[in-house]
């Protein structure tokens, strides 16, 4: 999986730490992104169901589902941290500016980058997770559901397999929830709320692609080729007017 890309610069393999100890800077953003990439690459390689796909389909799935995995992971870790802002794996976090007393000021470049994304994440991902008291088992199963999503460039066999695998994990999640709640209707309602989280993640994914493109176009944050590639953009060409 790591052979898909050549990562420029240093990737830190130290422990993932979503502690929110300091305000996020552009360098922290890129470092945190790389840490998540390495974690994600190791995670998918350990999934037995993922190994059943062809090499070509594995590359498609791994690349397409990296960002959705990251949104769900960072939202869950933010929920656990109790921070009012998105927490990264290197101890940094970007505070949400909602007028709460004592909230530190975020880096202006990060504020511009996340713009509406942080409010959508906090309101539509972190808040529901907190309200439902999402546990680690539910989170892990939901990440599997999140991974096994049909992509247009999978092979025909891959599309059949990914849909079958996704349904199986949804059933696993339902059975686990059913053991936690009093009745089937409550379990179905809780499952539906979790599936809505994935819809929010899809919208955040598209929004983030646009944000990365805009940041790269105006050279506000110097994203490397790995980040640009995953977000489906090309390196910006120099304007003839400059």
Count the strands? 3
SS-based structural class?
mainly alpha
The level-1 CATH class: Mainly Alpha
Order of helix and strand elements from N to C terminus: EHHHEEHHHHHH
Main pleated-sheet profile: 3 strands, mixed
The residue fraction in helices comes out at: 55-70%
**CATH fold field value:** Retinoid X Receptor
Could you tell me the strand content as a percent range? 5-15%
CATH architecture group name: Orthogonal Bundle
Q: What's the arrangement of secondary structure elements?
A:
Blueprint: E1 17-23, H1 26-45, H2 48-51, H3 55-81, E2 85-87, E3 90-95, H4 108-114, H5 117-132, H6 136-147, H7 156-180, H8 184-217, H9 225-230
Parallel strand pairs: 1-3
Antiparallel strand pairs: 2-3
Helix pairs in contact: 1-3, 3-5, 3-6, 3-8, 5-8, 6-7, 7-8
Characterise the protein shown here.
The chain is built from nine helices and three strands. It is mainly alpha-helical. The protein has a single domain (18-229), classed as Retinoid X Receptor, CATH 1.10.565.10. It has a three-stranded mixed sheet with strand order 1-3-2. Strand 2 (85-87) and strand 3 (90-95) form a beta hairpin. The longest helix is centred in the C-terminal third of the chain and has 34 residues, at 184-217. It is globular and about 50 Å long.
